[in-house]
Structures are given as structure tokens and as C-alpha cells.
Amino acid sequence: MVTVDRDAIEQEIARIQRRLTHLNAEQAGLEATLASLEHQLSAIDEVGRSSLFVGATVTNSSPTFDKIALFRHSFAGRPDVFPVRWENRKTARSGYSPACFNEWVKGICAKPNVKCGKCPHQAFIPLSDDIIERHLRGSDARSGDFIAGVYPLLSDETCWFLAADFDREAFL
Length: 172
Prior knowledge:
alpha+beta
């Protein structure tokens, strides 16, 4: 008869979960660094790229790549993390939280007791063309509705957004 050591198995499961968390965090960090470097590289050519959309028309029948490029150009934000909209129908509350590989993973994620920004296991998901496409389609195969946000303040404390109140009469 084979003796099963339950404690040993649970310890091994916990060790593997910790290792996966570490690997996910490392992957997210590398993807964020890569995205940041790509963003820096593209910023070098921004003057040339910005002219691509002056007078250009992106329509419903345009290729997905063009729609994603227009979205990235118009809503440039942090490449290393993005927020996802959530809704709790029971409490009638909604908001945005950073997208995380470890969100709601049993034994790793401590939501709602620990906020994402304070979580020691945070493994934020970098913004990708796939995420933008899911946002533009408004749906996600896994969870239905999908709304991605953007964190406009970049790591160098600059921002691409312009806020203006066009409703006031004395605007100009």
C-alpha cells in the first residue's frame, strides 16, 4: 500500500504556486520593460508617426491593425499596466483595477482585503495589441464584457492627454 503524505503534497503545491507567482511577476516585469523600451523607441519617431493620422481615415471597414494603431496613437498611456473595469451587481458598485495575472488566484491574491497597489504578489499585465483589440470589440471570450482603461501618467511623469472644457462660452 502506498502512503500518501498530505502535508508534503500541500507543501509542494504551495511551493509551485509561489514559483508560478514569481515567474508571472518576472514575465510581467520583462514585458513591461520591453513595452517601455518599445515606447521610448517609438517616441523618437513620434513626429513622423503623428503625421500618419493627419487627414487619414480609419473606418469600420479598416483593418484591425489600423484601428489598434489609431487607438494607441490617440490614447497613449503606461505600457506596463492597464486598468480593467469591474462591476459588482450585488452592491451596485463599479470601478477600475489594474489587470493582474494573479487576480483572484487562491492563496496568492488577497482581494478585497489588500488593494492591488499594495499587494506583494502583483504581476500586472502589460498593455498589448491583443488587449486593445479586446477593448475595441468590447468583449472577452472568458468573461463577456471587457473594458480596458489607460493610466495616462507615464513613468517619466509625462502625459499625452489633453483635458479641456469645451462647454464654457469663454473658452477662447
